[in-house]
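Notes, Module 5: Reading structure tokens.

Key idea: the token line is not a picture. It is a compressed description, and you learn to read it the same way you learned to read a sequence, by spotting repeated patterns. We will look at two proteins. The first is printed below with its tokens.
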Amino acid sequence: MFILDKNIVFPPVSKTSDVGIIAVGGDLSVERLLLAYKSGIFPWFEKGSPILWWSPDPRMVLFPEELKISRSMRKIMNKEVFTVTLNRNFRAVIQACAETGRKGQKGTWITDDMIASYCKLHELGHAISVEVWQGDTLAGGVYGIDLGHVFCGESMFTRVSNASKVGFITLVEKLKREKYKLVDCQVYTSHLDSLGAREIPREDFIKILKES
């Protein structure tokens, strides 16, 4: 396994272990994070452990034109129960994602250091957030890295039923209008599968990622 040092470099994704880990260590600097995402790599680790860098194969992705919106979700969106904004409060979204419990997980991988680094990426225009409001209350949200032709989804949260789905669907529809090639969903979940995401070979994902 590749051990990172102060040099900002990653090995080829072909060197990834069977479980999907490509490297350990390094830091969460803006430069390293941007290189990681552009290389098809992302950080995912528990608080108190070394930074783990992943590039799973296959890769879960959503092609915007394949987005599935159920009849019930379409009704909810048409009722305009929620208001959706973009980049209104990035810090509040990532903080809420960090505080939201996940089934089968003891804690969160979104540490204070990660929050600080991703907020810096947001300030520089590389990370975006989608906020879903019910009145003046933040009901749900999504954040991730924007590479210009690929959106790398990082996390979402919901405090009101269907709020995060509304935010995700609104974001994907926006990306479709702007001709984005895909949304990187990283790993399989049944929730993402229900929205139209599917697994593709990592090699295909990297090929699309390099098309800028």
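Here is the second protein, with the sequence above and the tokens below, as before.
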Amino acid sequence: MSDLTDVASELYGRPPGEFTAARNDRARQLRTAGDAELAAAVKALPKPSAAAWLVNTMVRHLGEPVAGLLELGATLRQAQDDLDAARLKQLNKDRRALVAAVVRQGSALAADHGQKVSAAVAGQVEATLNAAMTDAGAAAALRTGLLVEAMTASGLGPADLDGVLAVPEAMGELSPAPPTRRKKGKKSEGSKRTTGKAAGPDEDERAARDERAARAATAKAQEELEAAETRAVRADDALAEADAAVQELEANELRLRSELEELRRQMHEREHELDRNERALTKAEKERSTARRRAEDATARADVARGELDRLRGPRAR
């Protein structure tokens, strides 16, 4: 599968808009070269989601921030195994700050590649980074740079990696050796006694039961914290969207008010123009009436003069 991993590494480093065409071209080249099996495997590679593409791109271009994030995740998991509550509290605070910073860097990186990161995609990227910090398997999957879907993890439990990798076999090459866990042994009351007797089975069972209960309580508290942080992020996103909507509506209101003022100004001018036209019309109608009377008088006088002329001409004509 190393050949498929190499091809996938090249394809999943491309911008989202180029992936499908590049994948199909590569599969066609392999088929032409006679490698039908690899061609079919390449053709079956799924296009990554927007969040998966961004995380893959961050792995390729933000090496130090991503490595630092995964290193802090390993430290966090060790503190969890040690049941070190005080250290876990500080490490979780550091984790939140670091994840937020890396997500911001990823958003800027996406902008450099001509891609806009929505609040939903940023949330999926954050969930993927958190999963990689809380689960060693998710960390190995992230390091491949071959994610096709975002990852999620519940508290400090294992992440669901089903279907998140283009080439699952690639993770084996990058998976770290199982970490050495420091065992936190508990001395029994018997070991403290001057008699030097070893702890009995009851004491060992109680110690193991207490440790399991402490682990469960810590895991539950961590899960509740993760859920609260997720709700806070979603609330912040909703607030940002609401702010943007308000700003857009306020800008639209200003535009409409400006247009309305312009229309009112034009209406005021038209009213004055109409008033002037009405006064001119009244005057013109009066002048027309006067002109009509004068024309009628002149016509009547002309008729009288014509009759008088005809009368004077009459005897001569006879």
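Summary for the second protein:
- The radius of gyration is 43 Å.
- Residues 201-317 form the longest helix (117 residues).
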